[in-house]
Amino acid sequence: MFPWPTIVLAPLAGGPATPQLAAAVSNAGGLGFVAAGYLSADELAARLAQARALTDGPLGVNVFVLREAPVDQDALAAYARELEPEAAALGVELGEACFDDDDLAAKLDAVSGVDVLSTTFGCLDAETIARVQAAGTHVWATVTSASEASAAHAAGVDALVVQGAEAGGHSGAWSDTGEPARPLLALLADVRAVVELPLVATGGIADGTATATALEAGAAAVQAGSAFLLAPEAGTSEPHRRALRTGGETAVTRAFTGRRARGIVNEFMRAHPDAPSAYPHVNHLTAPLRAAARAAGDEQRINLWAGTNYARAEDRPAAEIVDRLRA
Question: Total structural domains in the chain?
Fold first, then answer.
């Protein structure tokens, strides 16, 4: 039996996630998530405490599980040279292209006792999962293939977040191989064929019809992200909000972070189609550039993460969006 609400907030790391948004979703009968990505462990603990002060409902935290992999250093250096004029035009220097694990161990300590812990980019090892579960926390893993689902099941997770190709932001794939992502409904069928776990469907969930379709396909719940980007509780930047309202096609790119992610196509994506697979190296490299562009209100040089159905997002309170998503 799946003990959690049918409507789940996607983590939305990197700006849109706020304690207020997570709490508003939980207060509306959903499951709000606090994104740990890109925060320090102390910042995460503070945000979680803020969210908990605003709701008595369940809360989840999402963490990145990153393992260092070989990177083409020549390609990375060439990409840095390619980006130097972009940085200079904004009056900043590029960041240091390096690997880090997003301070995972410290973040796991900071979220002890949270209701749900979900992972993306990988799965925690079986020993860590058991330790987290022993503290009363349910563990979910984001998967993008049947093989990932089988591995997560073997590690002992309680549920799977099944991410289809329609999803905005980063692919939760455990490796950045470039293999085409599976559409959500096809992926749900793939995963159901190999594991018997509750499935949380994500990717293109924009309204009650999409929710109903996913539930009919075997999901126990749905996770929505782009649907909440225009909510007043979200921390979505003004240039990102403007791009969401203006419209345009989405595409998958590595240009901003070195890892496949879906966003609204802009000048930066078009100018840099051959970014290397190197995460979080490229993310660190472009961080000062993106921060300067965001501060300048320049939506052409920031990542505009959005799913394929982002045009259906509405500028309304999160509670109303939760109601709209219910089947």
Answer: 1
Q: Is 252 exposed, middle or buried (0-12, 13-18, 19+ CB in 10 A)?
A: middle
Encoded tokens for 235: 């921390």
Give the pair of three-digit tokens for residue 95.
Answer: 């960041």
pLDDT at residue 117 is higher than 90: yes
Report DSSP letters for 18-64, one per residue: -HHHHHHHHHTTSBEEEE-TTS-HHHHHHHHHHHHHH-SS-EEEEEE
- Residue-number span of the structural domain to which 222 is assigned: 7-325
Q: Would 143 be classed as within a structural domain? A: yes
Half-sphere CA count of 264, side-chain side, radius 13 A: 20
Give the CATH number, domain containing residue 316.
3.20.20.70
- pLDDT, averaged across the chain: 97
Is 276 domain-assigned? yes
Of 313, 299, 234, the residue nearest 15 (C-alpha) = 234
Name the more confident of 113 and 312.
Answer: 312
Residue 316 belongs to a domain: yes
With CA atoms as reference, report the closest residue to 294 among 255, 227, 243, 258: 243
Residues 76 and 78: their CA atoms lie apart, in Å, by 5
Cα-based distances in Å from 102 to 36, 40, 98, 224? 9, 8, 12, 24
Query: Is pTM beyond 0.90 here?
Result: yes
Q: Is residue 1 part of a domain?
A: no
- Structural contact between residues 63 and 121, judged by C-beta atoms closer than 8 angstroms: no
